[in-house]
Amino acid sequence: GESVGLHLPTLSVQEGDNSIINCAYSNSASDYFIWYKQESGKGPQFIIDIRSNMDKRQGQRVTVLLNKTVKHLSLQIAATQPGDSAVYFCAENLDGAGAQKLVFGQGTRLTINP
Amino acid sequence: KAGVTQTPRYLIKTRGQQVTLSCSPISGHRSVSWYQQTPGQGLQFLFEYFSETQRNKGNFPGRFSGRQFSNSRSEMNVSTLELGDSALYLCASSSAGDTNEKLFFGSGTQLSVL
Residues B32-48: pLDDT tens digits? Predict the structure, then answer.
């Protein structure tokens, strides 16, 4: 997840379909990962998190998968709705010393087609 | 419970000026973090405060500073503004600032430097 900015990857899906958003993180020592959703004009909104001792975690309509071997994180959104349209960021916590210092990925813009 | 509140929402300054942004965390939260968001660099960590002490700092010049008050409210200051400081500045709070805690973000202050 080190942010390199510039062009935002875009994913377009049909309403009702499932979406999968992928993220590669940078540090094998990261122990906590979070997905955020950011709508236009708003701050990032927490979706789901996962610790490094897990490889899968489910929430309401969302699932996060963690593959530490290849340093890959994914967010699956089931039955996407128009309200899911937003930019999605993964973030990793590089500081295991009891403080927070999140490193965000560049983000993926999810567009839901009616 | 009220969310993270940031003021002002929008700010326009000119080069060379200084600016102070304010953040009120969620009631009971003691950790406040600041992030800068730009289209080119994405979301980048500025610093984190806990119990009025700066615990963590990102890679920003000394023109960026902050502080936290005894009621956990925080301010960040940018001196000698440059055009490149134009960004959305986001504040986030968490309960104790532990590594595996969720961060809750405010809507940000949009700073434009002319």
Answer: 999 999 988 899 999 99
